[in-house]
Write a structure and sequence with these properties.
Layout lengths: L2 E4 L6 H16 L4 E5 L5 H9 L6 E2 L7 E5 L15 E7 L13 E4 L5 H12 L5 H14 L10 H14 L4 H13 L6 H6 L2 E6 L2 E10 L9 H15 L3 E8 L4 E8 L2 H8 L7 E5 L4 H4 L1 H8 L1
Parallel strand pairs: 1-2, 1-4, 2-3, 4-5, 5-6, 8-9
Antiparallel strand pairs: 7-8, 9-10, 10-11
Helix pairs in contact: 1-3, 1-4, 2-6, 3-4, 4-5, 9-11
The structure holds magnesium ion (3 copies).
The site of one magnesium ion has 6 residues, from loops.
C-alpha cells in the first residue's frame, strides 16, 4: 500500500514542493509514495511548477484507511478532515509542535529551520540519494518563499547552505533574482477576489479553546492594497462571523520595508494589543520588522491566551 505525502490545507509552495520532493525520495528507497495536496495551487506555486516542468500533486481530500506522511505542519486544524481514521507514518516540519497524535510509531523529522524543504534535503543526504535537477529547483524556490529570500528571522544557515547546494544541482545562477520573480508574482493582487486573497495563505489555530484565524499576504510594496484595504477588512469581519472565530488577523507584509500591517477583527482587541505591545487604530496596527507569522505573530498571541 503506497503512502500519501501531503502538506497542509490551503497549500503553500513548501507544502506542494515538499510533498513532491519527499514522495520522490521515498520511491527511491523502495517506500512507494504518492504526492497529494489538500487544495488549489497559489499563483506562486503554479509559477514554480511551470518553471521546472513538474506536474502538480493530485488533489485528494480524504485519507481514511490510508498511510499518510504529513509535510509542513503537525496541527489537526491544518490536516485532512478524516486524519483520525488514517495512519500517520511520518511528519516532516519546521513549525511548533502541534496537536496531531498517533497510535503507532512514526518517522519524525522536525527542525527549527526556515522551510520543510530544508529538512527534506537533510533526508536526501541521510539516505545518500541524489536530487534530480528539476526537484532541486522546486525545493530551492520553496525555501526562498518560506524564508522571504533569507530575510525572515526564521531563516538559518542551514537554509542558506541548502539553497547553495540546490542552486548548483538546478544550475541556477542568481537565486535572488528568481526569488524576486516569485515575490513579484505574489504581489499581483489586483483583480483577484477579496476572499481569495484573504484565504491565500490562511491558517486556523486553537489557542486555549479559542479559534484564531491568521492570514498573510507578502508583497514587494504595500501600496498594492491601497484600493482594497477596506474590502479586505470587511471580508475578515465576515469570515470571523462565519467561522465563530475569537479573532481574525490578516498580515499585509512588505518584504522590502520589512514589516507588516495587521488588519484585525477580534472579540478582545486589548489582548492583541497586549501581545504586540502596540495600540490598534481602527483595526489596524503596523509592526516594524515583522515578517514571520510562525515566529513573530503566533507565539506572542499564544502567550496572551494562556
Ligand atoms: Mg506552509
Ligand atoms: Mg513551511
Ligand atoms: Mg509562509
Amino acid at each position: 500500500m503506497p503512502m500519501y505525502v501531503v502538506g497542509h490545507k490551503i497549500p503553500d509552495s513548501d507544502s506542494i514542493c515538499g510533498a513532491i520532493a519527499l514522495a520522490y525520495l521515498k520511491n527511491q528507497i523502495d517506500e512507494p509514495a504518492i504526492a497529494t495536496r489538500l487544495g488549489a495551487l497559489s499563483p506562486e506555486t503554479r509559477f514554480i511548477l511551470e518553471r521546472f516542468s513538474i506536474e502538480a500533486p493530485v488533489l485528494k481530500e480524504s485519507y481514511a484507511g490510508e498511510n499518510v506522511f504529513i509535510v509542513d505542519h503537525s496541527e489537526l486544524t491544518q490536516a485532512p478532515d478524516d486524519i483520525n481514521e488514517a495512519t500517520i507514518v511520518g511528519i516532516v516540519d519546521h513549525h511548533k509542535l502541534g496537536d496531531l497524535t498517533t497510535a503507532t510509531p512514526l518517522e519524525c523529522w522536525i527542525r527549527p529551520v526556515g522551510c520543510s524543504n530544508t529538512v527534506i534535503k537533510m533526508m536526501y543526504d541521510f539516505h545518500g540519494i541524489s536530487i534530480p535537477s528539476n526537484i532541486a529547483g522546486i525545493m530551492l524556490c520553496a525555501i526562498l518563499s518560506d524564508t522571504v529570500i533569507f530575510k525572515s528571522p526564521t531563516c538559518t544557515t542551514a537554509d542558506i547552505r541548502c539553497v547553495e547546494d540546490l542552486a548548483k544541482i538546478a544550475k541556477i545562477e542568481d537565486v535572488n533574482q528568481l526569488g524576486m520573480e516569485m515575490f513579484n508574482i505574489k504581489s499581483a493582487v489586483m483583480g483577484t477576489p477579496v476572499r481569495e486573497l484573504v484565504m491565500r495563505d490562511y491558517k486556523n489555530f486553537k489557542m486555549n479553546e479559542h479559534l484564531i484565524g491568521i492570514g498573510q499576504l507578502e508583497v514587494v510594496d504595500l501600496s498594492v492594497f491601497n484600493d482594497i484595504k477596506e474590502e479586505l477588512e470587511a471580508d475578515i469581519a465576515l469570515l470571523k462571523k462565519e467561522g465563530e472565530h475569537h479573532s481574525v488577523i490578516l498580515l499585509l507584509t512588505d518584504i522590502m520595508k520589512e514589516g507588516s500591517e495587521l488588519l484585525i477583527v477580534s472579540d478582545d482587541i486589548s489582548l492583541i494589543e497586549k501581545a504586540y505591545g502596540q495600540k490598534c487604530e481602527n483595526g489596524r496596527m503596523w509592526l516594524d520588522g515583522v515578517l514571520s507569522r510562525k515566529k513573530q505573530i503566533i507565539p506572542q498571541l499564544q502567550s496572551v491566551f494562556s
